[in-house]
Amino acid sequence: MTIVTTTIRGTLLSTPTSEVLDVREDHVVTVGDDGRIVSVEPAEINHAPVDIHLDRGTVLLPGLIDLHVHAPQWPQLGTGLDLPLDEWLFRYTFPLEARCADLGFANSIWSALVPALLARGTTTAVYYGSIHEPATVALAEACVRHRQRAYVGRVAMDHPQGTPAFYRDPSASEAVAASARSIEAIRALDSPLVQPIITPRFIPACTDALLEGLGELATASGALVQTHCSENDWEHGYVLDRFGVSDSVALSRFGLARDHSVLAHGCLLSDDDLTLLSRLGAGVAHCPLSNVYFGNAVFPLRRALERGLRVGLGSDIAGGAEPGMLAVCAHSVNVSRMLDDGVDQRLGSERRGVADSAIDATTAFWLATVGGAEVLGLEAGRFEPGQWFDAFTVTTIDETDRHNLDLVGTRLGIWPDLDDWPRRFEKIVRRATPADIGHVWVGGQAVSGGRALSGG
């Protein structure tokens, strides 16, 4: 029998579909002791005692899902992005990740990163660790400790041409064995929030034997898979030269593009690739900001969704310089407009863009909630009975009432006679910062914040 442990009353904003903004004013959400939503009802018919009554101007939203985070890269966030991807990796990223052999150094990153993402409303994160087993398990332990829902993977990479000598697995067999041990160690934490995920870095960093072994491990263990896929001209071209087929086809042949696989970027996926991945049940982590730096193209989001492909959003820390998923939502709208309009002014307007590519804030937020949940097979993202109660609050200020000193620090000004709910929602998606986020819950438990809450 489920016991109600928390009741929250206020205004709920969510995007149950990619085209619908659902606004429920003065509703009560009841949460059970299992962390799932029991009911969502108008306050006028739900007379249960209220534990938390959201303040005026505060709204409740589903927790954000970040499908692509390179955890060891947190210290280099916002740096080196003027370089091509391969140079960026070898000059900055691989040396930094190699330092995670020092468990103390790795833990200093995890203890900063995980709370920082939670404070931004990221209730679920899909993490690349490093090649080091102790550091990867410690990352999973940090997620358990801070109560973030997470998928944590030990990075596997053994190719002598695609990796530096100081940062690679000694052999394919040892890499597969280390990945198997990390799966066991993470599962031994016995956390309902944190799961292992098999993580070949990307095809250029992996030998055929490693890719084959990890595909077999995915079948044997039942763990999900994450990797990069058709990210940019260099990586996509490398795979074509090596195998004569695209990343999607190659990964599917190795058993790595499978149901709920998380394939990052996908900027150069063809229509045939989109159809194949949709049929396999895989999903794309669309990383709009890092694609600006490294992708060489804009991911064809609308075309992917039309073909039934699962798509969510990723920050791609640190290739993406913005760790907050609300900002990533805004970037996804921005790049879709660039694809729709085109960027080369030398071409006529009729040839410059790809028509019908643009998305709006509703679709973007859906990608960061429901879309990401569908990629992972996770029951989250909607305010519905049976869904996990992963959520966060955002507080706005009435611009006509700025004398209220309690709200002076917020950026989110609302003009009541101008801003209906769609406009308020758009302002939240485009402009909210950690300072505007009051409280965060994961699995029904408060994990961050508290500024915007009051008693019932």
Number of helices: 14
Q: Please report the distance between the alpha carbons of the first and last residues.
A: 25 Å
CATH fold-type name of the largest domain: TIM Barrel
- Please give the radius of gyration in angstroms: 22 Å
Helix vs. strand class:
alpha/beta
Helix content: 25-40%
Flag low-confidence runs. Answer: 451-456
Tell me which CATH architecture of the largest domain applies here: Alpha-Beta Barrel
Give me a quick take on this structure.
It contains 14 helices and 20 strands.
Word description of this protein:
The chain is of the alpha/beta class and 456 residues long. The chain has two domains: 4-61 and 382-455, Urease, subunit C, domain 1; 64-376, Alpha-Beta Barrel (TIM Barrel), CATH 3.20.20. It contains 14 helices and 20 strands. The strands form three sheets. Strands 1, 2, 3, 4, 5, 15, 18, 19 and 20 form a nine-stranded mixed sheet that branches. Strands 6, 7, 8, 9, 10, 11, 12, 13 and 14 form a nine-stranded parallel sheet that branches. The protein has a two-stranded parallel ribbon with strand order 16-17. The longest helix has 17 residues, at 103-119. The protein is globular and about 65 Å long. 54% of the residues are buried. The model is unreliable at 451-456 (pLDDT under 50).
